[in-house]
Specification:
- A hairpin with a 2-residue loop joins β1 and β2.
- A 5-stranded mixed beta sheet has the order 1-2-3-4-5.
- It contains 5 helices and 5 strands.
- The mean pLDDT is 94.
- It has one domain.
- With 112 residues, the chain is α+β, with helices and mostly antiparallel strands.
């Protein structure tokens, strides 16, 4: 099962799933991040909903008063460590992959 919110170093990594699109769940995500006492950059992994497109990753700053929506940006240069962790997590969960927008050909390519 995919952990939808994980803190990796100073970054909160939020993973979209077939039934959880974090950009549509900002209120509940704000509550979760506040309860964790998190402040900093939130990196959204949108593999499940955007596939292997260049906009797979996006980020937004989170402070005690919530998300700074003006800081939203698509991330082209994600830390190799974070991307590898996200890829490993996705590859180990076939249910996650089959619930994603990835075609069977995309899944094969992603698994290599």
């Amino acid at each position: 099962m995919i952990d939808t919110v994980r803190i990796i170093g100073e970054v909160a990594v939020v993973t979209a799933t077939a039934d959880f699109h974090p950009l549509r769940e900002i209120k509940s995500l704000t509550s979760t991040l506040r309860s964790l006492g998190f402040q900093g950059i939130v990196l959204f992994d949108l593999l499940s909903v955007n596939g292997l497109a260049p906009n797979r990753f996006a980020s937004m700053r989170f402070e005690s008063n919530g998300f700074d929506r003006s800081s939203f940006s698509v991330e082209a240069n994600v830390s190799t460590d974070i991307q590898e962790r996200q890829d490993l997590m996705a590859r180990s969960d076939q249910e996650f992959l089959h619930g994603s927008v990835l075609s069977s050909r995309d899944v094969k390519r992603f698994m290599q």
